[in-house]
């Protein structure tokens, strides 16, 4: 989230599109209710189904799964055409005026530089014109036809309300009503919040869905302001912490990144990261990258990381592909290139796409180690269950070892919520039986592997032998020790760079914040964005003062939020060029004439002059991006792309299948179906009564939702002779399931291009372990294809067929 849960109460308009917050985030959803109550806020829901969130909305519109970019670009077009633009914001705080290279353009739904063979773009033209002085060229009058604003206008021109009706199946009048409601939020004193989750991310162009809304929010002047923002509703209680801490194959904690093979040394690695400003006087905060990175290397390898060995840069793995995400990992298993799989707190047999492929892949392993408090379907993948078993149990040789771990409620530590708040929690119970804390299990594995390296040697022992492991009990690092390591410590005395005589922090003490991190080896810090969470003031994450002096839901002394306890990112943009709040009634920070101050920690240097230093300090240009340059693999503007499996052709380019740079593997190409065989659009989702796959173990949850089912419209049920409560068989090119049919008026056929498109909804909670009835969920059917930028699988739009079935789900 750019903002926070509690900030949602400040909004005038909530748009839930690409999520179902009342169902999947019922506790956080109370802030929507607060906004309605306090400010008379309205709620809009755009979803293929009439959801629990839609049931309490002020206005609802249906949309065909996978067509949101058309809707969003059409909203932008409508705002421009009807002058619903927060002009002062757009002119000062976005790259609207930046001139783009002449070579950049688009045709047939593709941007310049596409290479069909490589399935990739040459992105060199997707950039600004840079002058001889090294700064980007701009036209503040927005007259130049090559400025971002005019290119954006030209780009969105095709996305008319008629196009929305044709592609999304959203009736034109519903679209127009929503555009009007949203248009009101271009006022300086009205804000809109975007609450989204998987309905946007789980598509082969998921990241572009989110960019589309972010651009709209910038045009309305809604980023950085109370009640505004792009608010990703995160999933597991600590999934925000997962990405923050770099638990992705291409990340290092704090959104630093793993070097690639093309960056064999430290100097080359830094060249493309510590960017100089692209506009005069801008902050370009990533110039501090070396400080964060050196401090990270010191936290990892202590004395072994020195200036003269490039801070042990050679210890870091170098990526040969963009990422070893889960799709690539299971693909490599399926290619028989993986021997051992450690699976910690994850049930991929149910969670990952194409169960058939997963079963095949696991069957090729020598060893699978499961660290989980519960028995999972994955641990028993070798059993034959259900309708479709691609591998015969008897033929599977994989050895499976289960290491019983604790669960989150038996553990102590910080959980990072969607709003970036690190909230400390304490263990509620001891793990039962032989179960051990995850940290204990990992420490055992590490210490034993290290001992083997010590006694037997190995190809490259140094990164293991030299790993910093200064915990009081090497067999069990404690949560506060780990948290202090994240915060960072001064290894030598740290001085004020402007006054060499002024010591800021003495050697051995916790650094106050990342402002004290250095690139000379005098500081260590495990995760720079968390710096400040556990300093000499103590464990700030454990703070429990819920006071809210401003009444704006800031709660500055409740827990701790990254970065620097700042609750709203980009909050400098909540004030105009002179530093005065756009909305005097909701002042979050302001310029006093000398410095920035207010109700939140300013997202700018406290003394940065308002007309000179722009708010988007992480970008070298200082402003936000309506045109994303080459950062996005699939285009600097979001453009409509159909799902990989779609009932219709792409209106811009009938030859184009899905996202032209989506994550696909050769071996999966033949597993994609088309509408002639699989005419119905399926989408998958969750229910309040279960949490994924493990609440089936709880009798109460199992009783509330005992049985796997699929939802379909009355019209389709009539067409197919399916009865409410009867059994159906649903199949895709990759597998099949049997489930009970729920025939509902909450799903209606959408009319796209004059033809009905039927949607089948498949909740995801069932398997064969636990107290609920047996049955399979959507991932027996889903396609093995991922987003072009972040590899999230396309779980939300794929093709199936359906028929009435005799007999129950077999398991
Ligand atoms: N009770 C409960 N709560 C949970 C979870 C749980 O299992 N149980 N899981 C947690 C996790 S890990 C996560 S990530 C979150 C997920 O939170 P959400 O994303 O809110 O949950 P979903 O139910 O997967 O999907 C949301 C909605 O997206 C809609 N949708 C599908 N395709 C499209 C599309 O193309 N466009 C639009 N606009 N909408 C579409 C679906 O109809 C569905 O209503 O929930 C978290 N909360
Ligand atoms: N078709 C389709 N597929 C989907 C989705 C979808 O919308 N549609 N959603 C996707 C999303 S967003 C998600 S997040 C995944 C969820 O997929 P998973 O993360 O695999 O789902 P969970 O059941 O939450 O599994 C977590 C496991 O962690 C264990 N666990 C709990 N606490 C601890 C602990 O402290 N330590 C350890 N070691 N284990 C613990 C639980 O017992 C459980 O077995 O599913 C994904 N798959
Ligand atoms: Mo999730």
TrEMBL record:
Classification via Gene3D superfamilies: 2.40.40.20, 3.40.50.740, Dimethylsulfoxide Reductase, domain 2
Top-rank lineage group of the source organism: Bacteria
InterPro entries for this protein: Asp_de-COase-like_dom_sf (IPR009010), Formate-DH-alph_fdnG (IPR006443), MoPterin_dinucl-bd_dom (IPR006657), Mopterin_OxRdtase (IPR006656)
Cofactor: [4Fe-4S] cluster
Sorted UniProt keywords: 4Fe-4S, Iron, Iron-sulfur, Metal-binding, Oxidoreductase, Periplasm, Selenocysteine, Signal
GO molecular function, one term: formate dehydrogenase (cytochrome-c-553) activity
Any single biological process term in GO: anaerobic respiration
Pfam families attached to this UniProt entry: Molybdopterin, Molydop_binding
Entry annotated with the keyword Metal-binding: yes
Domain (Molybdopterin oxidoreductase): residue spans on this chain: 1-381
One GO cellular component, as annotated: periplasmic space
Residue intervals of the Molybdopterin dinucleotide-binding domain: 682-798
Cellular location(s): Periplasm
Family membership noted in the UniProt record: Belongs to the prokaryotic molybdopterin-containing oxidoreductase family.
Name assigned to this protein: Formate dehydrogenase
Provenance organism: Paracoccus sphaerophysae
């Amino acid at each position: 989230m750019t903002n926070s849960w509690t900030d949602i109460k400040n909004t005038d308009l909530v748009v839930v599109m690409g999520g179902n917050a009342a169902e999947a985030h019922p506790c956080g959803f109370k802030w929507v209710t607060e906004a309605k109550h306090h400010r008379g806020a309205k709620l809009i829901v755009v979803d293929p189904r009439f959801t629990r969130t839609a049931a309490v909305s002020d206005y609802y519109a249906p949309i065909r799964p996978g067509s949101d970019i058309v809707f969003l670009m059409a909203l932008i077009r409508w705002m421009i055409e009807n002058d619903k633009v927060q002009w002062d914001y757009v002119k000062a705080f976005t790259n609207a005026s930046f001139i783009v290279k002449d070579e950049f353009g688009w045709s047939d739904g593709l941007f310049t530089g596409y290479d069909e063979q490589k399935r990739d773009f040459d992105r060199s033209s997707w950039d600004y014109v840079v002058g001889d002085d090294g700064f980007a060229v701009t036209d503040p009058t927005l007259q130049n036809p090559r400025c971002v604003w005019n290119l954006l206008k030209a780009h969105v021109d095709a996305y008319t309300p008629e196009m929305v009706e044709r592609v999304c199946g959203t009736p034109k009048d519903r679209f127009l009503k929503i555009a009007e409601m949203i248009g009101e939020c271009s006022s300086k004193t009205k804000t809109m919040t975007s609450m989204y989750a998987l309905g946007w991310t789980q598509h082969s162009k998921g990241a572009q869905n989110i960019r589309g809304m972010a651009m709209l929010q910038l045009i309305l002047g809604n980023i950085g302001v109370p009640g505004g923002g792009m608010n990703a509703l995160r999933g597991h209680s600590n999934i925000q912490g997962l990405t923050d801490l770099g638990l992705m194959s291409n990340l290092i904690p704090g959104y630093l990144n793993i070097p690639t093979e093309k960056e064999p040394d430290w100097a080359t690695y830094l060249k493309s990261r510590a960017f100089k400003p692209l506009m005069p006087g801008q902050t370009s905060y990533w110039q501090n990258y070396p400080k964060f990175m050196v401090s990270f290397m010191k936290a990892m390898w202590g004395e072994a990381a020195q200036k003269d060995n490039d801070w042990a840069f050679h210890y870091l793995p170098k990526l040969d592909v963009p990422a070893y995400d889960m799709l690539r990992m299971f693909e490599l298993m399926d290619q028989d290139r993986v021997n051992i799989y450690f699976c910690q707190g994850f049930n991929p047999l149910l969670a990952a796409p194409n169960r058939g492929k997963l079963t095949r892949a696991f069957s090729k392993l020598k060893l699978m180690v499961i660290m989980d408090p519960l028995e999972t379907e994955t641990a028993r993948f070798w059993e034959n269950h259900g309708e479709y078993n691609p591998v015969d149990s008897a033929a599977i040789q994989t050895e499976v070892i289960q290491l019983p771990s604790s669960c989150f409620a038996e553990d102590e530590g910080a959980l990072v919520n969607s709003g970036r708040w690190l909230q400390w929690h304490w263990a509620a119970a001891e793990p039962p039986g032989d179960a051990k804390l995850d940290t204990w299990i990992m420490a055992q594995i590490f210490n034993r592997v290290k001992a083997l390296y010590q006694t037997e040697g190995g190809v490259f022992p140094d990164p293991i032998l030299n790993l910093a492991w200064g915990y009081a009990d090497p067999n069990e690092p404690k949560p506060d020790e780990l948290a202090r390591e994240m915060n960072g410590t001064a290894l030598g005395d740290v001085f004020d760079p402007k006054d060499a005589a002024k010591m800021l922090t003495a050697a051995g003490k916790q650094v106050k914040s990342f402002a004290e991190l250095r690139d000379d080896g005098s500081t260590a810090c495990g995760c720079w964005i968390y710096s400040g969470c556990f300093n000499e003031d103590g464990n700030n994450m454990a703070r429990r003062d819920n006071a809210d002096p401003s009444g704006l839901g800031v709660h500055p002394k409740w827990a701790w939020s990254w970065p620097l306890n700042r609750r709203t990112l980009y909050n400098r943009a909540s004030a105009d060029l002179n530093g005065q709040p756009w909305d005097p009634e909701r002042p979050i920070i302001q310029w006093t004439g000398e410095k920035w101050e207010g109700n939140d920690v300013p997202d700018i240097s406290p003394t940065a002059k308002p007309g000179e230093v722009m708010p988007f300090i992480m970008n070298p240009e200082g402003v936000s991006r309506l045109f994303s340059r080459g950062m996005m693999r699939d285009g600097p503007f979001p453009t409509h792309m159909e799902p990989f499996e779609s009932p219709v052709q792409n209106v811009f380019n009938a030859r184009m299948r899905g996202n032209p740079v989506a994550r696909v593997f050769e071996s999966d190409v033949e597993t994609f179906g088309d509408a002639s065989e699989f005419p119905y659009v399926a989408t998958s989702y969750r229910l309040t009564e279960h949490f994924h796959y493990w609440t089936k173990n709880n009798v109460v949850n199992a009783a509330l939702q005992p049985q796997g089912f699929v939802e379909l419209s009355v019209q389709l049920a009539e067409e197919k002779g399916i009865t409410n409560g009867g059994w159906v068989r649903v199949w895709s090119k990759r597998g099949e399931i049997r489930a009970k049919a729920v025939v509902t008026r909450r799903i209606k056929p959408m009319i796209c291009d004059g033809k009905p498109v039927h949607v089948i909804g498949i909740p995801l909670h069932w398997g064969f372990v636990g107290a609920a009835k047996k049955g399979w969920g959507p991932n027996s059917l889903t396609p093995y294809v991922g987003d072009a930028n972040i590899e999230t699988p396309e779980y939300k739009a794929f093709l199936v067929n359906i028929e009435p079935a005799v007999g129950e789900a077999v398991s």
